[in-house]
Write a structure and sequence with these properties.
The chain has no helices and 34 strands. By secondary structure, it is mostly beta strands.
Length: 492
């Protein structure tokens, strides 16, 4: 397992170093998927799931599309797209659902158009080792059936009725789905993105959403302890069908103030951490020009949070924005929402998100396209947080721990700078011959650490401390591998 610096787990002491949260880089050709078909003309939402399937060497994308603006509509279609490179997506002809006389489409058998209840976005996970091939793709989603006169008109939107709630379905291929016969599995409302991870330590699924409670007749439960509104809750399951009572895990605090809401959270289980992309809804008052009434609207961007158990969360980067909105002239200037999980592939972390120039309640930042499209932002592997040094030499001493492999590797960007590593024994003093490694320079995703031709294993120490000496460098991670004595590195 790689050693990261999201918290102090791997840090004993350090000096002249700064912990930095690194923002992902948006793809210059964004958006990668835009509305094209008649069932998509209202916009595309990736509150669903992007996945990479190694056996097929293919990206798969489950997304929601609407035929009308603002997602206040009677038809929300669950759609499917694939890609070989994660950028150029194709919409395969599934011929499963007849969309108003059109059979050649990429619509999945969910929602009103497929003869089911209406529903929110589809969150999909892939488990190739499930002993039942028909359950290797699993989906969870909110479905609803009621009409309500909200927004001043009749609409089938997220308004609960008796029998509505969170449901699940299973598939052998992500296309042909069988709904669980005892749906809904949770009588809760969650009109936001959902995220599901599998906790290997506890051997359980953990699902995140808003999971707001409602009564048997569909009424809101107004008590704050019963309906936590725009905040993040979680539920767990051993088998994906029997889920625990949702519990609140993240809500705005005093420092956030009353004009911040948490719209949802995407979660990635990564190198022993739960990493959350927290959707921050920045409320502001807006004077509606048509009736001169004041309403609340605002933009949505992302912050990052981290947890060691998926329950107790820590805000990172002093609550700075992790993925920001674009500028006024950009397609993502108003709101953005991430997919259910980032995709980790080779040396990249790929974050798919849907966005629009519109603010949350529908107002656009400028007179520009309002429809949602899907874009991509990327980080280097382990790139969420780094320890950075400037011109003055910085030092990191790791906590005492086992050297669990024959070689030590680092992920660093020392362009214009240098990193050297010292192996220290249990007394924290340098081991002779391993005082300072050969200098590591340049942008290195995977650089083996060498001491004048010697490897970590040559020190003949099973455990100890590591001391990093850095100047003008960023250190993302270090880890141990069992390997041969030849040196290897991977440059950016």
């Amino acid at each position: 397992m790689r050693k990261l610096f999201l918290d102090n787990r791997n840090i004993w002491k350090m000096s002249n170093l700064k912990r930095v949260m690194n923002q992902p880089v948006k793809y210059s050709g964004n958006p990668v998927l835009e509305p094209r078909n008649i069932w998509e003309k209202g916009g595309l939402m990736i509150n669903g799931s992007p996945l990479y399937i190694p056996e097929e060497k293919k990206f798969k994308l489950w997304y929601a599309a609407t035929e009308a603006d603002a997602f206040v509509t009677e038809v929300i279609s669950m759609c499917y797209a694939t890609s070989d490179d994660g950028i150029n997506f194709e919409r395969p002809n599934l011929s499963i659902v007849n969309y108003k006389g059109i059979l050649e489409n990429n619509i999945l058998p969910f929602g009103i158009i497929a003869g089911q209840k209406n529903q929110g976005e589809l969150t999909v996970i892939y488990e190739p080792n499930d002993p039942n091939p028909a359950r290797r793709y699993k989906a969870i989603f909110f479905e609803f059936s009621g009409k309500s006169a909200i927004f001043g008109k009749e609409t089938q939107w997220f308004w609960p009725q008796k029998g509505d709630g969170m449901s699940v379905a299973f598939s052998p291929d992500g296309i042909r789905w069988k709904r669980y016969e005892k749906n809904p599995v949770l009588p809760t409302l969650s009109d936001t993105c959902h995220s599901v991870v599998y906790d290997l330590h506890c051997k359980r699924y953990m699902a995140y959403g808003r999971f707001r409670k409602f009564g048997s007749n569909g009424e809101w439960l107004g008590n704050r302890t019963e309906d936590w509104g725009r905040a993040v809750a979680y539920t767990t399951s051993k088998d994906f069908t029997n889920w625990s009572e949702p519990e609140l895990v993240l809500e705005p605090d005093v420092e956030d103030g009353s004009m911040i809401n948490f719209y949802g959270m995407s979660v990635l289980h990564y190198e022993g951490y739960f990493i959350g992309l927290l959707q921050i809804y920045h409320l502001m008052e807006w004077l509606k020009p048509e009736d001169k009434n004041i309403t609340l609207t605002g933009n949505v961007d992302l912050q990052m949070v981290v947890s060691t158990n998926g329950i107790a969360w820590q805000r990172l980067g002093n609550r700075a924005t992790f993925l920001p909105n674009g500028y006024d002239e950009d397609w993502d200037a108003g709101t953005l929402y991430p997919g259910s999980n980032p995709v980790v592939l080779d040396d990249k972390i790929m974050i798919y998100y849907c966005a629009s120039a519109r603010l949350h309640e529908g107002e656009t930042t400028i007179n520009k396209q309002r429809q949602f499209s899907i874009g991509l932002a990327t980080l280097r592997r382990d790139g969420f947080v780094s320890l950075d040094s400037g011109w003055e030499e910085g030092m990191l001493m790791t906590r005492y721990g086992a050297f669990s492999g024959g070689d030590l590797y680092v992920n660093t960007d020392a362009t214009g700078g240098v990193i050297q590593i010292t192996i220290c024994g249990s007394d924290a003093n340098p081991i002779p011959g391993f005082e300072r490694s050969d200098p590591i320079t340049g942008d290195q995703l995977k650089s083996k650490v060498i001491w004048q031709g010697k490897r970590l294993a040559d020190a003949n120490y099973k455990a100890g401390f590591l001391r990093f000496i850095m100047r003008r460098a960023k250190l993302y991670s270090f880890w141990f591998e069992t390997g041969t004595s030849d040196q290897s590195s991977s440059r950016v």
